[in-house]
Structures are given as structure tokens and as C-alpha cells.
From TrEMBL:
KW Transmembrane helix (keyword) present: yes
Pfam families assigned to the protein according to its UniProt record, in alphabetical order: AzlC
Organism annotation: Paenibacillus thailandensis
Highest rank taxon of the organism: Bacteria
The family this protein is said to belong to: Belongs to the AzlC family.
Name the record gives this protein: AzlC family ABC transporter permease
Transmembrane segments: 63-85, 91-114, 154-177, 183-200, 207-226
Record membrane topology: Multi-pass membrane protein
Location(s), subcellular: Cell membrane
Keywords: Cell membrane, Membrane, Transmembrane, Transmembrane helix, Transport
The keyword Cell membrane belongs to this UniProt entry's keyword annotation: yes
Length: 252
């Protein structure tokens, strides 16, 4: 009995030391490296966003500013369209607010992995969180209880700077790229998300449940988008599909 107790006591520190070692290895530079596969998606969509914003009548300085402050692909596309249509500022702000509500869900999903940080440091981590960096981070967090703060900053900052550069480049190249869809740029971001989804599903070893959740999300998105619009469809799919996954997990 004493031998078993000693083994348990020894195992607990070993696990803690292993976690600390893993976190030390996840440096800022490592976060930069793990962001590289997503940069092509950022680059293509950022170029397309810059072209659309330039077409809407925005200057290069305005495009740079909106990329720095708003930093949201879908919201920037919507903003450019609404500006081109001469919509009032209140309508633009309200629309962007509802479109970006999904970031509350993304932050909530990652928050358990940063409980060791202060509220201020958590805010700094969440300030630059995007759909893409969330996908990379949640894939890394599958077999962990916490994520390195330095690694997350490396991931976020790399994506952020690349997005700003891509938007500015799109603003300059807009006069030569009148239609980004001709070059398949519109598919780069969905393609990147599909890749992240496949990697996540493969590493979790819960293929049946993940497939059911994915199919549920697609069905809900299509049905709700037809009835109420694409933005509501995405939010509804997120809530209902995650509920389906939770019910399956608890039932099993």
C-alpha cells in the first residue's frame, strides 16, 4: 500500500513537470512557425478584402486603419459593401457587432486553457483571436490542460501582421485584380478551415461524433440561412451543432 501511495505521489509531480516542460517548449517563435500554414488563407482573403475596400472608395490609409482596428475578414467585407451603398454609420456598427458575436463563443471555448493567467493577460490573448488562430489553438489544446501564453501571442501576432500587410497589398494591387474570384482567392479561406477541421478530427479519435456534429452544422447552416440569412445561419449552426455533440457525449 505504501508503495502504491509513493508511486501516486511520484506520478503527480512528474505530470506537473511534464506540463511545465511542454509549456516552456511552446515559445513565441514556435507559435510563429505553427501559424505559417494558415498564412496563405490570410494572404489571399486579405488581398481580396483590400481590393473590395479599394473598390468601395476607401483610401490606402483607411484600409490600413480598418485592418488594424477591426481586424475581421467578414466584417471588413460587409463594411466595404455598406460604405459603397452609402449606409449610415449606425447600421454598419450594428451589423459588424452581430457578425462578430461568434468571437464570444471562440473565447469561451479557449478560456479554460488560460485560467493560470490574470484577467488583463487573458484580454491581451483574446484581443487578437480569430477563427483561424482559434482553429490552430484548439487543435493544439486537445491533449493539454493549458496553452502557453507566449506561443499564443506568437500565433496571434503573426496572423495579425500578415492580415494588415495583405489588406494594404490588396489596396495597391486592386487596379490590376478587378475580380479576385477569377484566381480562386475566394476559396482559400474555406479550404484552410477544411484542413484545420480534418486535422482536428483525426487527432481526437472521435470520428463518428465529430462527423455527426459536422453534418448537423452544415444542415442547420443551409436551412437557417435560406430562412433568415447567412449570418443567423452560422450562429444557429454553432449553437445547435455543439449541443448535438454535447448530448452525444453525455449519452455515451
Amino acid at each position: 500500500m505504501r508503495g502504491e501511495q509513493a508511486a501516486v505521489k511520484q506520478a503527480v509531480p512528474d505530470q506537473g513537470q511534464k506540463a511545465e516542460k511542454t509549456e516552456r517548449e511552446d515559445t513565441f517563435l514556435q507559435g510563429v512557425k505553427e501559424c505559417v500554414p494558415t498564412l496563405l488563407g490570410y494572404l489571399s482573403i486579405g488581398l481580396a478584402a483590400g481590393v473590395v475596400e479599394k473598390t468601395a472608395g476607401m483610401s490606402v490609409a483607411e484600409i490600413a486603419l480598418i485592418s488594424i482596428l477591426l481586424y475581421a475578414g467578414s466584417a471588413q467585407f460587409i463594411t466595404a459593401g455598406m460604405i459603397a451603398a452609402s449606409m449610415p454609420a449606425t447600421a454598419v456598427i450594428a451589423t459588424v457587432f452581430f457578425v462578430n458575436l461568434r468571437h464570444i463563443l471562440l473565447s469561451a471555448a479557449l478560456s479554460p486553457y488560460f485560467r493560470h493567467l490574470t484577467p488583463l493577460r487573458n484580454m491581451l490573448v483574446g484581443a487578437l483571436l480569430t477563427d483561424e488562430t482559434f482553429g490552430v489553438a484548439i487543435n493544439k489544446a486537445i491533449h493539454r490542460k493549458r496553452i502557453s501564453e507566449k506561443w499564443m501571442h506568437g500565433l496571434n501576432v503573426t496572423a495579425y501582421l500578415n492580415w494588415i500587410a495583405a489588406n494594404i497589398a490588396g489596396a495597391y494591387l486592386g487596379q490590376w485584380i478587378a475580380d479576385p474570384e477569377t484566381y480562386g482567392l475566394d476559396f482559400a479561406l474555406p479550404g484552410m478551415f477544411i484542413g484545420l477541421l480534418v486535422l482536428t478530427m483525426a487527432s481526437r479519435n472521435k470520428l463518428l461524433r465529430d462527423t455527426v456534429v459536422a453534418i448537423s452544422a452544415v444542415v442547420v447552416t443551409i436551412v437557417v440561412s435560406i430562412l433568415y440569412g447567412a449570418n443567423i445561419g452560422v450562429i444557429a449552426a454553432t449553437l445547435l451543432a455543439s449541443t448535438v455533440g454535447l448530448v452525444i457525449e453525455k449519452w455515451k
